[in-house]
Amino acid sequence: MTDALNPGQTIGILGGGQLGRMLAMAAARLGLKVHIFEPGENPPAGEVAHKTTTAPYEDEAALTAFADSVDVVTYEFENVPADALDLIEARVPIRPNRTALATSQDRLTEKTFLKDIGLDTAPFATVSTEAELAQALAKVGMPSILKTRRLGYDGKGQARINDRHDAPTALAAMNGADAILEGFVNFDREISVIAARGLDDTIACFEPGENVHTDGILDTTRVPADISTATRERAFGIAGTILTALDYIGVIGVEMFVSGDEIVINEFAPRVHNSGHWTEAGAVIDQFEQHIRAVAGWPLVDPVRHSDVEMTNLIGDDINQAHAIASETGARLHLYGKAEARPGRKMGHVTRVLDPATDR
User: Fold this and answer.
1) Which option is the CATH number for 10-94: 2.30.30.20, 3.40.50.300, 3.40.50.20, 3.30.460.80?
2) Could you report the per-residue pLDDT of 102-118, keeping only the tens digit for each?
3) 153-172 pLDDT, tens per residue?
4) CA distance linking residue 282 with residue 303, whole number of Å
5) What is the pLDDT of residue 2?
6) Hey, which bits of the chain come out as E strands?
């Protein structure tokens, strides 16, 4: 395949957290090297990468040296400063592309993009002031959720508004940041599709997973999701539409709300995704190798699911269960190498193979 990296060449990864760690491990299986760029000291990905640069994203000399040492750059999280990306892109390809990254970094931009390509989202309106919030509530209705347009994740930067008395407190919680008000979606279940697109325009979708959140953080993903064949196929089509519209290369995670036969898009992440960790134990290829293949210009694999599985995040003190989990037959334990367990911090995950006859 043209533009394909050869074993021994290097992929640069912006960000050194657990996703970067798992990408580095997948790259190593294919004989590819990984160079991590991460502002924080001793990142989890640094333990398994060929090389790690520890420097802020404002350090132009460090960014230049990083870009010159790699053959392609990808990222494990969305909030990389635009100036850093400008410098890198002038020297080496970035995959997925800047359009995908910029679209996902701003919830208003993301929702507008999804509507413009014909997909359904919750009703939304932009909010910067008290007057705009009042107008948005009149348009969107209640209950609704006020979210910062940028930087929110795992339930952070969000406030629910059940009635007008909640509005001042919700607006204050934004700390002056531009926000978006989203209508509340009554759904039967949340699903996510992990999909990939290669340099040759091939699209490959993993089986949809059914997600359960606790306190705004993903708790479990179970596969297969309890959805109809028609809903499954439509979810695949939605992911493919997004990939094509963005001219996307790599793995994407698309979160969707399902109500009856209707699907509403929640959001997408332009990277490997927490809800795709089940692929390590349940499919013929995991999301991390599929992403590495895509950005390296290698052929994608048809990601056939071979087992029913449930992935559970290990958050904070859940890490203390590691030894007990390790004794379970059919449980695949993955720890991230983080030194300190804190409330809300993802320390690892476990994926358990299910018995289809008894575990539904």
Assistant:
1) 3.40.50.20
2) 999 999 999 999 999 99
3) 655 678 999 988 889 999 99
4) 10
5) 55
6) 10-14, 33-38, 51-54, 72-75, 124-127, 144-148, 158-161, 179-183, 189-197, 203-205, 209-214, 217-223, 250-259, 262-269, 309-315, 331-335, 346-353
